[in-house]
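Hi there, hope your week has been kind to you so far. It would help a lot if you went through both lines with me. No rush at all, and the record is pasted right below:

***
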Amino acid sequence: MQKTVLVTGASAGIGKATAIYLAQNGYTVYGAARRVEKMQELKSYGIKPVALDVTKDDSITACMEQIFQEAGRIDILINNAGFGSYGAIEDVALSDAKYQLEVNVFGAMRLAQLVLPKMRKNHYGKIINVSSVGGKIASPLGGWYHASKFALEALSDALRLEVQSFGVNVVVIQPGGTKSEWGTIAVDSLLRVSGKTAYAGLVAGFKKSFEKVAGNVPEPIVIAKLIKTSIEAKNPKTRYSGGYMAKPMLLLRQLLSDKLFDRLLLSQLK
């Protein structure tokens, strides 16, 4: 039987690439995002676009009800919707910080709450939470983004232990740099929030570093393939990482002391 997949944040980047790749590989795919107009081309791959704002509970429940009504089930939930709100912690308005957590954490967990009853009943399900290398490594100027991804990783660990006896797998995906709108949005946010504050020097270093590596990052299909691997593994790993510098950075974070790793990070922002 064909598995039914819901991919959030499917209008661009990793979400779009994943929706297309899974549809090409025999899955029934629903792509969800706020920008429905940006998902129209997905229809040519047999993907069904659904409107979804993960910060609004009525939008979340309407999306889920539509899929359950049409497909009867969601076998695989890919929580990919997210963005990076960058700026020095001192400068970021708490309203913006709360919105960052609403999108990256609470929206994902609300979707998980709604898919779990049927997954438990079917004794089958996969919840794939797209975190980031930034879910294990915190760099300056991205504090609230990192807080959201650290939280997503902790919740994933707890959820994995809660639901494994019901035949449900919870997997974390940790992308490094990949081609998407994410980086541009993060840098624009950073310049707007902290570009002219006491942190302007650090911001200039961050922008320079970002521009230096922007041409080296792979296409998001790299992460889409990782997600497919995690879905199809009989006994999936708890975490999969890929993309620009993902594995080396995660390894260095394990090997180096906090202060040595701090020096490494700051040396890249000069």
Notes: The chain is about 50% helix and 15% strand. The mean pLDDT is 96.
